[in-house]
Amino acid sequence: MDDNLGFYERAELYDIAFSFRDIGGEVDVLTGWYRSMTGRPGPARVLELGAGPAQHAREFVRRGAEGWALDMSAAMADYARARAAADGVRIEVVMGDMTAFELARRFDLMLLMINSVGHLMTDALLVRHLECVARALTPGGIYVMEVAHPADDANHPEGEPPRQWSAQRGQTTVDIRWGRLEDPLDREHRIRTHTVELNANIAGRPVSFVEQVRLRAWKRQAIDEAIQRVGGFSTVRVYGDFSPDVPLEHSAAWRMIYVMQRADSPRR
Question: Which pLDDT value is given to residue 151?
């Protein structure tokens, strides 16, 4: 393993670090949202954007859908293919920019998970992204975008407190420290520079590195305005968790999850 690589290029360590997610449970909820908004039993073709290891796409394939994944990283694309092969499923993995992609297929369900929208730094980039999504959805198709909860930013105006967690898979352990109190904040553009420290042990071999990750803290108003500018969505719902029972304003809400239906939904 190249010790000069950053967090995202170390695809396996990234995958292990975020393995605390309940992918099966989240896909259950995603499928329920899809059914309630479309009246269909489930999506036939799913595209995960900014997919990384493509965990959600792979789970949808296990359940009978055709799965696609798009990511800018060659390392992540190769890793997603390898994980799918190891799982005995097949996904189509393509390299591309989530603000400028055009695929030969159209999709019933599209996903952008784990606050990947934070990598879009401007309103114009978000609009371009949503325009691409609207073009790629089938009539009446659903787009789900998971965003960090706005309270994360509002409750800590001087910077988010550091978060630490550990994960293990086989002989590999990963310890993550995300953020420092002194990390810089561009208040005008709502962009934080997070210091990410990773310490891993891979079958007795230690690997450590520190890097900077810039993310925009998106407010609901800015996202709503971008959706209105695109004008490609007829229905927009917002949840505070992967549950239909947790609205954004609920005390248990920890995410801001947009569920949008493409306009021109066919009559049923």
Answer: 81
- Return the number of other C-beta atoms located less than 10 Å from residue 78's C-beta: 13
205 lies in some domain: yes
Residue 205 has pLDDT above 70, yes or no: yes
The amino acid that residue 260 corresponds to is M
pLDDT band at 156 (very low <50, low <70, confident <90, very high): low
DSSP state for residue 247 in the 8-state scheme: B
Q: What is the pTM of this model?
A: 0.93
User: Residue 169: beta bridge partners?
Assistant: 172
Parallel, antiparallel or unpaired: strands 185-186 and 191-202 = antiparallel
Q: Count how many domains the chain has.
A: 2
**Which residue, among 112, 136, 142, 126, has the nearest Cα to 262 in the 3D structure?**
142
Q: Rg for the chain (alpha carbons), in Å? A: 18
Instruction: Tell me whether residue 268 is in a domain.
Output: no
Mean pLDDT of 156-165: 70
Containing structural domain, residue 45:
11-152+218-262
* Across 111-116, average pLDDT: 96
Report the C-alpha gap between 131 and 125 in whole angstroms. Answer: 10
Q: Are 99 and 132 in contact (CB under 8 A)?
A: yes
Q: Which of the four pLDDT bands, split at 50, 70 and 90, describes residue 244?
A: confident
Q: How many whole angstroms separate alpha carbon 46 and alpha carbon 109? A: 5
- Compute the distance between CA of residue 197 and CA of residue 13 in angstroms, rounded to an integer: 12
Q: What are the start-end ranges of the H helices in the chain?
A: 11-17, 23-38, 55-62, 74-87, 123-136, 150-154, 220-230
